[in-house]
Amino acid sequence: MTLPVTSRRSRRLLASMIVAGLLGPAPLVFSASAAAAAPPPGDGGGPDRRVLQYADPGVSGTTRDLAGDLVVVPAPDPGPEARAGQPEAGDRYYLKPAAGGEWVELHFDKGLPSEAQGRIDAQVAADGKVRQAKVAAPVRKAPTPSAHRAWIVKITNRGDYTYDGKPATDDDIKNVVDDGLKRWVAESNGYITSFDVQGKVLEAEASGTECYGGGKLWSQVEDELFPDVKFGGSTGNHLFVVQPGGCGGGLGTVGSPSIGNGGYVSFDYSPNKNTTTIPHELGHNFGLSHAHTYTCVGDSCSDASYGNLYTAMGTSLVTSPPIHPGSFDSFDRGKLDIASTCEVQPLELSEGQRSVTRTYDLFGRGSDTGTRGVKVVDPTDGTTYHFDWRNAQGRDAQSQYARNKNNTRHRYNLGVTVQRVVDSDYTQLLTDAPDSDSIRYGRREGQTWSKGGVTLKVDRTGTEQSETASAQITVTLTNPAAADGPALPVQPDGRAEVIGKPGTGETLGVQTDGWAEGTCHRFQWLADGQEVPGALAPTFTVPAELAGKAITVRVTGQRTGYAPTTVTATTPSGTPQWPAADFVPGIAYRFTDAASKLTAAAPAPGSASADLVQRQTAGDETRFAVLPAGEGTYQLKNAATGRCADVAYGSTSEGGRVIDYACSAGSENQLWKVQRHPLGGIALRNVLSDMCLVPKDGSTADGAALVQTRCRLDRAQSWDMVQTVPASEDWPTVGNWIGTVPYEIRNAGSGLDAAIPAGTKPPQYLEQHASDPQSRWKIVANAGGYELRDPANEEICVQQSGTRIGEWYCGDNVPARTWRLAQNPAGGISLINQATRDCLTVKDDSNDSGTQLAGGPCGVEAHDRWEVTASVPPVDQWKAEPAPLGTVPYTLGNLAAGKPAGTPAGARDADSPLVLGATGKAAQFRLEPNPDGTVRIRTTEVDGCMDLYRGRSGDNAEIGSYGCQDSDNQKWRLLANPAGGTSVRSVDSGKCLTTKDGATTDGTTLAQTTCGLDPVQRWDVRVDVPGIDQWQQVDFDPARSYTLSDLAAGKFAGTPAGADSTDSPLVLGATGKAAQFRLEPNPDGTVRIRATEVGGCMDLYRGSTSDNAQVGSYYCGDGGNQKWRVLVNPAGGTSIRSASSGKCLTTKDGAATDGTLLAQSSCGLDGVQRWKLDEAEPVVPEAAHRPTA
Questions:
Q1: Could you give the C-alpha distances from 1150 to 81, 299, 1048, in angstroms and in order?
Q2: 728: closest CA among 201, 144, 41?
Q3: CA dist., res. 1064 & res. 1000, Å (int)
Q4: 721: closest CA among 596, 588, 632?
Q5: Are 683 and 711 in contact (CB under 8 A)?
Q6: Which residues touch 830 (CB under 8 Å, ≥6 apart)?
């Protein structure tokens, strides 16, 4: 085919150059109002280089403020159907509103760089022109393995779906999408654990006439069919909209580079092209740009977008039969951060160095092991180049260039490719010949390429066509401007050891240890000291012709800035022990055999003790939770059966069966080590037998049984270990957070707490610090989840803005300030923002105090998980509740169940259970104080005492009623729980009253558990007496005088000594006649209480209804504020209740000292508002004691 070639620079390069100018000081223009406003976190208020600020001063008139996600849609792949002279479309920009609804197309006066995706706040005119915008790009995080999902919608009003003259079914459409999804699973290096189509193909009618649809079509389909699914961002959710043939290509949104992205894809149904179109558009979703070529003929050079046909990011091709794209190149794999260690080796000159030369053994770009690329930096101008070897093997085997590999005139030939990186965004594939008749993109054996200070020489490409074949290249970097510097330092020697059993037909490997970080290795196998031609891989299978020869391997360690170091490893004896694999324990994984490509699986759920097998299926039977069981050992628990991988009968023999068996703690035949296999992947080594898991006889058949064999360098013993973590929206919500107590939110990776920097005010960004008062948060429920409030100022909440996490003023259910706390599959809590669906994490996965927190893709790594614990004092420091009244009945209501505890209906024996759901007298207790400050809790109905059965100390020990006795298992402390309510704590065990297993149903027996804040162990302890309106009136004799003594103070009330006016205070501590009152009945049943000494009446000052309002003596009248009711208090004594306010006589502030004024408060059982009403003794006048003459 003829590639579309343009003589100008690419759109993407041009856009990047323009915006680079925008980031300078001169072209930026902002309105005064915007400059003056205090920005919320992440909106460009700080020196965050990820925030792009944009202004177009040419826009005038009315604008509206919009907020949401900026979606960049590159120009569609024109495909081979592109007509000559057709204008080339540019990138398009859309704002996807955070509040939902139709996407808004934006028009900037200058292009934006592809890195500009992210949260956007913009002022937009009616025609879409942008006056001002701020874009906060997402934080770049190391990728974590995750599942992806795809939804497919076909447009039904733009023609019929046919292929090769036949109508296409929904399954046909689903199959072409699934083919592209599987390709990305294969390319992702395990970072995409699964990529499955969700449900059936749905249908929609397009409302617009635009061929590609783009933002408006995606917006329409999303709103109509998927209101509850979030696409794009870091969700891993992808929407595919398919149309009948005729549009000529495909379209996909461009994400910020991350393998965890979701996105949107449109394509026309054309199976002979979709095998390349769909991987290409998904590449855009993940943040990849088009792959270009750069061709020079004479002095004329041109850049061709889509021109690189070695990779999927080039143009889509129509072929019959369909082809698959080549594997993604070193640049794209590095851009997504999915390349394996040493897959792409870097080389650049150290400071002061003039020249360096390195030799590399390159394996094919489509293979899965070894070094597959070299990245160099030209010391003369800083240009970055990538070198890959394309040998049409592995994942390249069905590519366009592989199909034409025998065509000697084809420009996409087998060989070493050179790609130049442009603006860190895309690459240009460079030719190796200046004349158009012999253009070749792959350098062949013996050829040399030079540019600036870089020289590449292809030493050998070999003739062997296999995934294990390798080419050899030599790269020299030279900086003519640098003086000859000192020799490169020699890095410390590492170690190398041959692994495996020597012998013909055996596969040997190399284990390296002790090398500095960043060291990569070359290998050369030797027989009796002589090089074995082509034996350059980390493994070597000994051929028959080398029988009896001593096999060794020469290992060369190479690291930038150091001279190479070479060691020779000899073949050892004994069983190989391999290093432990690095993985997240506690979550489920799938184990796929490197040789058979099938997955370890349990038998049917009902088939206990049956053999484990290998399967093609991907259900729960292939998921195994890797559960820590000791130092470096694990149980493999199947998700479908709940049983564990077990070596049958504890066999230590080769070929011993591995079965699905009931899990048993400490059983060594169920304990496994997860180790790094020298051939890649991991090995599962049984602790008891010291043998490794493998398909029986190395079978590649579906359903073959798994057995154990001696651990060796056998690919059938190497397993790809892939996380099977569900999408974060499926993680279970953790609720029951208590909004009244503060919590510490501690990062599982760093061990530091989420905190506000000391002495700051909002807006402020959260950091991680050691535990202190600044690192406490209240978790308060709202309609959408929870708000994280600052206990020091509960009007301040934690919010996510862009990717930054800060404080801002709380609002009503604002999604950016609303969080869902979910159970992370690996343990701990994930805090998920309801606006972005991002998870709270630590910037750059740092362990340093003071590092800012960030929002990023949800994962199971340590820095994505948090320990959320209540910051309350230990139970020994909880305050005791006021001493109860032993004379009145109480009820104990459980705060979780909302039900009272007591004896069961019909119980009459003191030896009875205590249960939830009691009623009437059976729900009453008397709380009898003991001299030591504890209480005895007596059941009113059966006259037994609350009893901890046999004084047991364990959780869930039963608590019932038993005959009362003076023993610690019947002594309890009533403590004020920090979360509210009362905790009833056993003196004997130190544990707290709860219900059996935390249940809340009627009839649940009471039990004990470790004291905490759970509502099921908090109780509403309240007096169970009639309402005050039902209290009986006291009988009295109006002809007699009475005294009122306060039961709390033990002192008489009356007028102060020497008072002689009716307008006098009433106080405690009165004596003699000043402490006497007469009770004078009123016709309405109330009484007037007259102070005998001064003749005034008890008077509520101005009839106040407030607590603590003064009660004194005043001139007698008929006002309601001088009318009282004298009532029998259920706790003993008398209550004197105002007919005016309904409140009861007490002392000012509840004080008990002489001279304390009388006052009123809400009626209750407190001793300070209970009075002893006694007839007064007659007062003998002083004169009566004098002698008569």
A1: 93, 101, 9
A2: 144
A3: 57
A4: 588
A5: yes
A6: 728, 731, 821, 822, 823, 824, 839, 840, 858, 864, 865, 866
Please give the pLDDT value at position 47: 36
Is residue 767 pLDDT above 60, yes or no? yes
| pLDDT given at position 77 | 56
Question: For 732, what's the count of Cα atoms within 13 Å in the CB-facing half-sphere?
Answer: 8
Instruction: State pLDDT tens for residues 752-762.
Output: 999 988 766 66
Taken in order of first residue, the domains within the chain and their CATH numbers are 11-136 (no CATH), 146-289 (3.40.390.10), 327-478 (no CATH), 495-570 (2.60.40.2700), 588-721 (2.80.10.50), 728-870 (2.80.10.50), 875-1023 (2.80.10.50), 1028-1175 (2.80.10.50)
DSSP 47-115: --TTEEEEE-TT--S-EEEEEEEEEEEPPP---TTPPTTPPPP--EEEEEETT-SS-EEEB-SS---GG
Distances (CA, A) of 73 to 12, 70, 98: 12, 10, 18
Record the tokens describing residue 958, joined without a space.
């039963």
Cβ neighbourhood burial of 766 (10 Å; 0-12, 13-18, 19+): buried
Residue 937 carries which side chain, given as an amino acid letter? I
Tokens linked to 1066: 């009433």
Mean pLDDT of 465-473: 82
Distance of CA 136 to the CA centre of its chain: 21
The answer to whether 958 and 1006 have CB atoms below 8 angstroms apart is: yes
What count of Cα atoms within 13 Å lies in the side-chain half-sphere of residue 667? 17
Q: What is the Cα–Cα distance from 141 to 839, expressed in whole angstroms?
A: 12
Say whether 790 sits in a helix, a strand or coil.
strand
Euclidean distance between CA atoms 975 and 714, whole angstroms? 64
Would you say the C-alpha torsion 779, 782, 787, 793 has a positive or negative sign?
Answer: negative
Find, among 672, 726, 694, the residue nearest to 613 by Cα.
Answer: 694
The position carrying tokens 């009136």 is 1033
Residue (of 173, 179, 180, 177) closest to 244 by Cα position? 173
Please give the pLDDT value at position 30: 24
Spatial separation of the C-alpha atoms in residues 14 and 11, rounded to whole Å: 5
pLDDT at 709 over 50: yes
User: How many Å apart are CA 577 and CA 68, to the nearest integer?
Assistant: 53
Q: Give yes or no for a contact between 1116 and 1088, defined as CB atoms under 8 angstroms apart.
A: yes
Nearest by Cα to 519 from 578, 547, 559 = 559
On whether the CB atoms of residues 694 and 709 are closer than 8 A, the answer is yes
Residues 949-1007 have pLDDT tens digits of 988 889 999 999 999 999 999 999 999 999 999 999 999 999 999 999 999 999 999 99
Identify the H or E element spanning 964: none
DSSP state, 932? Answer: T
What is the Cα–Cα distance from 288 to 297, expressed in whole angstroms? Answer: 28
Question: How far is the C-alpha of 399 from the C-alpha of 276, rounded, in Å?
Answer: 9
Residue 634: both structure tokens together: 């694990």
pLDDT mean over 596-606: 85
Helix orientation angle between 271-285 and 170-187, rounded to the nearest 10 degrees? 50
Count CA within 13 A, CB hemisphere, residue 437: 0
For tokens 């809590």, name the residue. Answer: 829
Q: Please say whether the dihedral angle defined by the alpha carbons of residues 98, 99, 101 and 106, taken in this order, is positive or negative.
A: negative
Q: CA-CA distance, 172 to 377, in Å (whole number)? A: 46
Cα 843–847–853 angle (5° rounding)? 30
CA–CA dist 1016, 897 (Å, integer): 7
Residue 784 has what pLDDT?
A: 86
Mean pLDDT is lowest, of 374-383, 692-701, 802-811, 1016-1025, for: 802-811
